[in-house]
Specification:
The strands form two sheets. This protein has a seven-stranded antiparallel beta sheet. The chain starts with 13 loop residues before the first strand and ends with a helix. By secondary structure, the protein is of the alpha+beta class. It has a single domain, classed as Small protein B (Small Protein B, Chain: A), CATH 2.40.280.
Amino acid sequence: MPPDKKKKHLPPGNFAENRKARHDYDVLETVEAGMVLAGTEVKSVRGGGASLAGSYAIVLGGELFAEKMNIAEYAFGNRFNHEPARRRKLLVHKKEIEKLRLKTEAKGLTLIPLRLYLKHGRIKVEIGVCRGKAARDKRETLKRRAVERDMDRAD
């Protein structure tokens, strides 16, 4: 993707952000995880072709996976291209996976990918342990932000 076409609202090193997640969920805790990606996926992510909208993480068989995370096909990938919405394995320590599994099963929390970023040359994903917000909570948050914005303007 040419430099002038890149998303301007993301800081350098951030490839995708799930802004809707912070609106729909209370983020209680975050965990950093690595990802198992194919070569064409890495090139696509670095080109800005990743989307976290509607994605979530699940624990299956003692491993953590990201579901419905869309990474667009790489334009020059030919027959070696990847499947855009495939299940991707997340790399986290076994103890952390067990903690996340217990939280999601017992307390009814959800694992939501919040952001995709670069750290020391590796693509990482920030997973949030989230609780869903009710409609009234969303309205409260919007009101609080509006009041804070008005106070900042007054200063």
